[in-house]
Amino acid sequence: MMNKLIVYVADRQHFYDLENLIEVFVLKSQLEFVEDMTAYHEKMTDGDSGLQLIYETAESVTFVLNHKGTEKKVNIYADKAHFKRNMKRALYELLAQYYEPMSKWGILVGIRPVKIVHELMDKGMTEPEIREILLNDYLIQPEKVNLLLEIATRERPHLFPVEKDKISVYICIPFCPTRCLYCSFPSNSLEKKKRLVPEYLSLLIREIEETFALIHSKNQVIDCIYIGGGTPTSLDHQQLEALLKTITGHTDMTLVKEFTVEAGRPDTIDLVKLTLMKQHGVSRVCINPQTMNDETLVKIGRNHSADDIFEVMQLVRQVGFHSVNMDLIMGLPGETLTHAEKTLTDCLLMKPDNVTVHTLAVKRASRLNENYEQYELTHDQTVEDMMTLADTKLRTSELIPYYMYRQKKMIGHLENVGYALKTYESLYNMRIMEERHTIIALGAGAVSKICYPDENRFERVANFKGVEDYISRFDEVLKRKHFIE
Ligand code: SF4
């Protein structure tokens, strides 16, 4: 049996970052966090290695690494502004003496790495200066540095200068036909919760009416709308029409630059729904195959085949939306590079304007995580090869990276990358990632972000996660929306 790394962290400060950074070097299954030094020393007698993180003051920390009878000690002192980065860097360099890093992202473990590049660009730094910081201070590998710089450069004209009177709106329909194997969202399967849809929708409509009125009373303009979930097209024809009518009846649609509906699953889409969407000004739809391999679709619990995707895409083209996005996932259980190749080839045959390529993440609240042993997960290196293949094939079809993000528990510590044809970048996707622009979110589980671009900070205001809570505590939901005032 392999020896474990026993970790004692004397203070929960920065715990999230440190835990994630340690996992860049040591598999979670080989890590054990202990509560006190007594437990630490007891465990160490089994021949395990140990790591202690001891905070002396808010500006100083000591790391002690015990490995096969040796002890290495590092003390970090840094001012508040640079403390976190210096601390992570010191821990990285200490661990790198004994373990091989499994990520190309250096000390970065957060969700939005491009934000750092925007901050450096805001300071007026040149590309070579930023490149040097990313390589030498953040220890990011050159290929990822190139990706960050490429994306930040492409995003900038869409995001800056920040128009403070423009607001995006996110509306959540948290229902899906079935629950996907890897899903950790608070989505509710229609099989179990269909009875809640009418009441949920009538309250959501009230939330839209009141929130839109509040936004307009502050002379703010809604210029970007995103209906996501869940699967918004899980609604039936009447319900979808009622939702779309409410939106278009309560804001000036001539000012809306982008209106997305995440249609998601083909088994929820038909010509009537697509026509309704088109009539109400929807400009962008997402059709998400995830994979074009039927065997995998069954395994991950989706009610459709690859052929269904081709058929729905024909309907989408027939109705004629400005922009069509497709989401794919690399590394689904049992998939090889050949599966990924088929998915990408089929996807490109349908000529989408945007493609978002995700790396599978094994999230805590997913069925995949609960039944981990049952599934054959793809090897980290294979998933990396799949992402490289996707990048090559998409670029060849003129789909170029325009936004990206990372998640916890991604296979191979990789990333999700959104590709788009020139001028087809999704405004909403760039805004949500870079957090300089206010997004008001409505519905169960939705989280609004109020941005203060001058101070480079934002505040979150969350709605209740569960549909039941959203319904039973709706008065509170409405009250919370008064932050807009
Ligand atoms: S479609 Fe999306 S939200 Fe719905 S179950 Fe699948 S992963 Fe979850």
Write the layout of secondary structure elements.
Layout: E1 5-9, H1 15-22, E2 31-34, H2 37-44, E3 49-57, E4 60-67, E5 70-77, H3 80-96, H4 114-122, H5 127-136, H6 142-159, E6 166-173, E7 175-176, E8 188-189, H7 190-193, H8 197-217, E9 221-229, H9 237-249, E10 258-264, H10 271-279, E11 284-287, H11 294-299, H12 306-319, E12 323-330, H13 337-349, E13 354-359, H14 367-370, H15 380-396, E14 400-405, E15 416-420, H16 427-434, E16 439-442, E17 447-452, E18 457-462, H17 467-472, H18 474-480
Parallel strand pairs: 1-2, 1-3, 6-9, 6-16, 7-8, 9-10, 10-11, 11-12, 12-13
Antiparallel strand pairs: 3-4, 4-5, 13-15, 14-15, 17-18
Structure explained in plain terms:
The chain is an alpha/beta fold. 40% of the residues lie in helices and 22% in strands. The protein has three domains: 5-96, Rossmann fold (3-Layer(aba) Sandwich); 114-152, no CATH class; 166-479, Alpha-Beta Horseshoe (pyruvate-formate lyase- activating enzyme). Strands 14-15-13-12-11-10-9-6-16 form a nine-stranded mixed sheet, sandwiched between helices. A five-stranded mixed sheet has the order 2-1-3-4-5, with helices on both faces. Helix 1 packs parallel to helix 3 and helix 4 (114-122) crosses helix 6. The model has no long low-confidence stretch (mean pLDDT 93). Residues 176, 179-180, 183, 185, 187, 229-231, 264-265 line the site of iron/sulfur cluster.
